[in-house]
Amino acid sequence: MACSRYEYVKSYELDDRILPNVWIVIRIDGKKFHKFSNAHKFEKPNDENALNVMNAAGIAVMQEFRDIVLAYGQSDEYSFVFRKDTTAFKRRASKLLTYVTSLFSTSYVMNWPKWMDRQLVYAPCFDGRTVLYPSDANLRDYLSWRQADVHVNNLYNTAFWKLVLESGLTNQQAEERLRGTLSADKNELLFQEFGINYNNLPAMYRKGTILLRKRVVQSANDDQEKGSQAIVPIHDDLIREPFWREHTEILGKYVPGKYVSEVSSSPRLLKMQLSEELQLAEQLQDKANIS
Amino acid sequence: MACSRYEYVKSYELDDRILPNVWIVIRIDGKKFHKFSNAHKFEKPNDENALNVMNAAGIAVMQEFRDIVLAYGQSDEYSFVFRKDTTAFKRRASKLLTYVTSLFSTSYVMNWPKWMDRQLVYAPCFDGRTVLYPSDANLRDYLSWRQADVHVNNLYNTAFWKLVLESGLTNQQAEERLRGTLSADKNELLFQEFGINYNNLPAMYRKGTILLRKRVVQSANDDQEKGSQAIVPIHDDLIREPFWREHTEILGKYVPGKYVSEVSSSPRLLKMQLSEELQLAEQLQDKANIS
Amino acid sequence: MACSRYEYVKSYELDDRILPNVWIVIRIDGKKFHKFSNAHKFEKPNDENALNVMNAAGIAVMQEFRDIVLAYGQSDEYSFVFRKDTTAFKRRASKLLTYVTSLFSTSYVMNWPKWMDRQLVYAPCFDGRTVLYPSDANLRDYLSWRQADVHVNNLYNTAFWKLVLESGLTNQQAEERLRGTLSADKNELLFQEFGINYNNLPAMYRKGTILLRKRVVQSANDDQEKGSQAIVPIHDDLIREPFWREHTEILGKYVPGKYVSEVSSSPRLLKMQLSEELQLAEQLQDKANIS
Amino acid sequence: MACSRYEYVKSYELDDRILPNVWIVIRIDGKKFHKFSNAHKFEKPNDENALNVMNAAGIAVMQEFRDIVLAYGQSDEYSFVFRKDTTAFKRRASKLLTYVTSLFSTSYVMNWPKWMDRQLVYAPCFDGRTVLYPSDANLRDYLSWRQADVHVNNLYNTAFWKLVLESGLTNQQAEERLRGTLSADKNELLFQEFGINYNNLPAMYRKGTILLRKRVVQSANDDQEKGSQAIVPIHDDLIREPFWREHTEILGKYVPGKYVSEVSSSPRLLKMQLSEELQLAEQLQDKANIS
């Protein structure tokens, strides 16, 4: 059959190549995740396991797209940073955006049962957007913006849910109690009324999760070449200088850095990854043998 | 904490609103689905169940986004047509594209176990693209292009796999045997060597699947107002006129048409949908009562 | 010298091809023409000669770009309509936009001395923008919008300047006098106070100028093939149906229509054009002979 | 009259804001200037006066748009560099592109009689394009690319026209003579056959013209604050370091540098500018007094 008569419609697809030499940030956001977290009974203010489903999905994306040098997740959002000179998918905007969004989405669903003891009631949905940052300073400011955001929100939410769950206030009463308070006020409230030192709460809640590609070695003396490459979750302050001095590979010539980890004490996200990669390789091997 | 110092980075997000008054087509394509179908042992040349996972995902997208007037799926791709005057997400290109891609992706994973007796070995991934068509003729030509494509490919694949699976040719031998043949030749080969009348093969394989929003009624005499609205899968020829004369709601003022179905004989995709909607409503009701 | 080391910078030029099958409208606007018209002592509220400089520039653009089917000018703006299927400059947005803007600009300066008895004090400047209209109805509404605009503004300006120039009001007094008045009020004011029937004022002031490509013939009986092609200025109502019934070539298959003109009575803009084309052809002929 | 019914068409104008924090380069190119230069009998291979018409137009643009930090012209093209953080016209792409293109175009026509003893036979036309460069290195490479281009072309053209005008070769013979020659060969040819040391030819022909905004002072000891600001034409090598070390204001915090000029020996382009600014100011003053 002659396709040719209709094929002209292909010319309506327009080129959407991204400007070279800029940081490409793709940010994924959960669609109506307030409703989603209620429907799935997430713990308040933070559900560690639900956050790890996000992190596992982030790791899956970063494993697939080697030109992502850093990812940053908090709450129901995840940002992926492609290095400036990536030529992945010829820098076509739609390809990059949808591959990342799609793989994040499917990985979220597939990782759900590994962390959650409830079943998914309905399919989650994420939107994605692409933002371009020309300079390194812009990129750092972007990431600082997202980390400042988690700080502000998490401090508020921690105080809010303490008031609701432990002091028995209604949502509205808790809102009114917190209206107009500064950070210091909320820190004080947590300490005075609930004996909580906010800075001692888990770093993942306060700082979000930074994913970096590293060579994982057993001890600092190990030759980096030995370790297996993995996506390492880190919960550090990325606003200040020390983070960037330690992980120079992000802004510099991109070569994964070294990450020292005694396997026994490394985060479950990392252990799963190392063992899953092994399993997946074996499974694919099996399939290949059969077919 | 002052977010304001970093908030300027938000201004780097540029407006991507789509021109008004054009058909918005979003097409989803499986990433490396040749490998994916091998890893999951899809039947050749068509795996009815795997196609229905695609269809179920297409239905999920169309249920969520009410301004999609038609979807069309074949092989590992699905096209969604938003009506010209949709204002969904303010016509922001990235929002529309990523919501559709994400929901299709997660729905694919969640519908997998309903149709497939194997587990997913790894997370599937889809890309999405947006194409704009100004005129109704353009839109029909686009859909004709995709349906002509499935015809050409399916006829070839049917002959190819018959030669490989039944005549014992190697892949390469089968390729050589078919090189340069016309449609008529392949029809003849199927008939002479395998006793197959190509036109009697399942319409879903030959025509792909068209999804339309309809009011489902029990008999032609039923008042349309009675039926429940559903996304109805159809395997018709959309290249020719009769399809467009029957489903005038697509190009006209958009009001879902009537679809006559004795539930007992309606496709499983439709039955599942009608019963699942009921179940989902109940589940959500339960959650709401608990929380 | 090796250019190659630097040539990569060319890859930073991105494709800006315009969607096929839409009307392409390019509108030129004078930059700070309020100041410009004061510096060049334009007559108020309308300077016939200054408008004809605009018209002459519009004609020059339409002569050069054969795919412009209609142009419409009023005040310090001019709109050019490229037919939907133009492939001029491969539909590259910047090329189309800047060629039209540039040629309009240079033609404005070159036509100035043919109509104005003062010299240009400084270089005028115009901005240009591209707007896409998918349907014929959109295009007609666009043109109606611009013609409705000239009506509103010209009626106001006519009343305003009568009050200032003949009744001796200050600008501010005239503004206050007209604040909140309806069209009918301003018509009445012109008639009662100045004996002016607004509808008898020159059509160019009230309706703007429509440029159409026509075959100009001497009498209605002439064979159209005989006439020379020219850009004909028309001052009609393009909001209502009759205009579109008369000039069916605009929206239909584009073939210039017939325009009956006894040369003696045709507008100077048309006469100049017919004779200038002749002169230019001769001049270019001369140059060619020399070089 | 109700404009409102048509005003919806305004919503078809889409936002085209340029990404922040990138160098914005707008390059103007003459349309069919080969024909134009023949029709106006430009001297070959370089017409000093015609180049100065281009330079005068470039200066006019740079005087109007204060955020242009450098312009570079050669042959029939001119590039304008807006500083990274310009907010001129809210960085709207079409506005920036068309204002620059239009003002360059009208200034070209208006400056023509100041340099040329022939009249314009027809209106010249220029296209314009916008290219974005994220880093300073990109910008320097862009400018180097254009200056390497003028070197290659001018050396070729100089040899070509010597062969045609002095040795009496036909165009085709000259082409054949030069085919495959390297720069060194052409230098040698000019020296051996025509006694010309290429490096002694006017720098404007070999290097093009760089326009910089400077405070013009009479002697190096003058306080910079005293001088009047002007656009200074320079014919230097901008590929190498010294240029950038001398004019640090271009890439640095933008403050016009100092330019030492004894008025008597400064280029006519600069003298005209200083005196014209004065005249224009006076003319505008006069108009203001009259109106």
Automatic annotation (TrEMBL), chains A, B, C, D:
Q: What EC number(s) would the UniProt record show?
A: 2.7.7.79
Any binding details for the cofactor? Binds 2 magnesium ions per subunit.
- The tRNAHis guanylyltransferase catalytic domain sits at 6-134
Binding sites annotated in the UniProt record for Mg(2+) 1: 29-30, 76
Sites binding Mg(2+) 2 sit at: 29, 76
For this UniProt record, the keywords arranged alphabetically read as follows: GTP-binding, Magnesium, Metal-binding, Nucleotide-binding, Nucleotidyltransferase, Transferase, tRNA processing
Q: What reaction gets catalysed by this protein?
A: a 5'-end ribonucleotide-tRNA(His) + GTP + ATP + H2O = a 5'-end phospho-guanosine-ribonucleotide-tRNA(His) + AMP + 2 diphosphate + H(+)
The residue ranges of the Thg1 C-terminal domain are 138-229
Classification via Gene3D superfamilies: 3.30.70.3000
Q: Name one GO molecular function term.
A: tRNA guanylyltransferase activity
So what family is this one in?
Answer: Belongs to the tRNA(His) guanylyltransferase family.
Q: What is the protein name stated in its UniProt record?
A: tRNA(His) guanylyltransferase
Organism of origin is: Drosophila rubida
